[in-house]
């Protein structure tokens, strides 16, 4: 597959989710804060970087399935796995030319995950039912004509938290997600308690931070605040 086609896949995903194309990795920066009592340097990360903290990025336009499997295992089942490991296993077990033309199938992914002991099955399910079950799952979406595998990492009343190998973690409005997904998920029966602890994880929802209402209010009591003030003979030093 050509690089231009790969870029087209990423662009289609971004369009489907209403995103701008993002770099696969973003560097953290250090911000110096200067105040009346000195300065401090703190690390800061961009939203783009946070998006990739819980997702394994795909390297090829037909490898989203391998990256989705690696994402599921690494960030939801505590089994660090690379896209290359999954890719090589599924290539060896499948039809290479068909995979290059159509990409990996859900059956390819099921066979790999079952080999890891996850006991997976495909289910037709509603988003509300998946939210009640409370485990992550791989699903297929249609992005501008491209079939694309992603991981459902969480669901709340308004959004679906999607781990997308092409654009990272994104919060997609439920109504919009329902218009592009297949309604079929690949979920694991084994290790369900572990999976539940990593579904709707606060780490992943950081890409959609809540409004910091009240965070600028100093809650320190007056006595503690007075202890932090400089003595009269220290002023101006």
UniProtKB/TrEMBL annotation:
Residues 58-188 form the Peptidase C39 domain. Pfam families: Peptidase_C39 (PF03412). Transmembrane segments: none annotated. GO terms for biological process: proteolysis. Residues 1-26 form the signal peptide. Keywords: Signal. The keyword Cell inner membrane does not apply. One of its GO terms (cellular component) is membrane. One of its GO terms (molecular function) is ATP binding. It comes from the Bacteria. This is C39 family peptidase. The lineage of its organism: Bacteria, Pseudomonadati, Pseudomonadota, Gammaproteobacteria, Oceanospirillales.
């Amino acid at each position: 597959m050509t690089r231009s086609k790969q870029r087209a896949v990423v662009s289609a995903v971004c369009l489907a989710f209403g995103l701008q194309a993002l770099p696969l990795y973003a560097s953290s920066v250090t911000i110096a804060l200067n105040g009346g009592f000195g300065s401090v340097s703190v690390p800061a990360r961009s939203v783009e970087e946070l998006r990739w903290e819980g997702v394994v990025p795909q390297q090829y336009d037909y490898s989203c399935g391998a990256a989705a499997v690696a994402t599921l295992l690494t960030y939801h089942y505590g089994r660090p796995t690379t896209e290359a490991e999954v890719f090589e296993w599924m290539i060896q077990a499948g039809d290479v030319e068909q995979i290059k033309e159509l990409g990996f199938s859900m059956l390819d992914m099921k066979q790999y995950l079952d080999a890891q002991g996850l006991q997976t099955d495909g289910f037709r399910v509603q988003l509300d039912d998946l939210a009640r079950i409370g485990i992550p799952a791989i699903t297929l979406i249609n992005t501008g004509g491209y079939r694309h595998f992603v991981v459902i990492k969480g669901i709340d009343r308004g959004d679906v938290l999607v781990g997308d190998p092409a654009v990272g973690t994104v919060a997609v409005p439920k109504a919009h997600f329902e218009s592009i997904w297949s309604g079929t998920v690949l979920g694991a029966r084994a290790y369900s308690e572990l999976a539940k602890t990593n579904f709707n994880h606060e780490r992943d929802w950081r890409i959609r931070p809540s409004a910091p209402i009240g965070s600028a209010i100093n809650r320190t009591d007056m006595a503690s605040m007075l202890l932090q003030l400089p003595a009269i003979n220290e002023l101006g030093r």
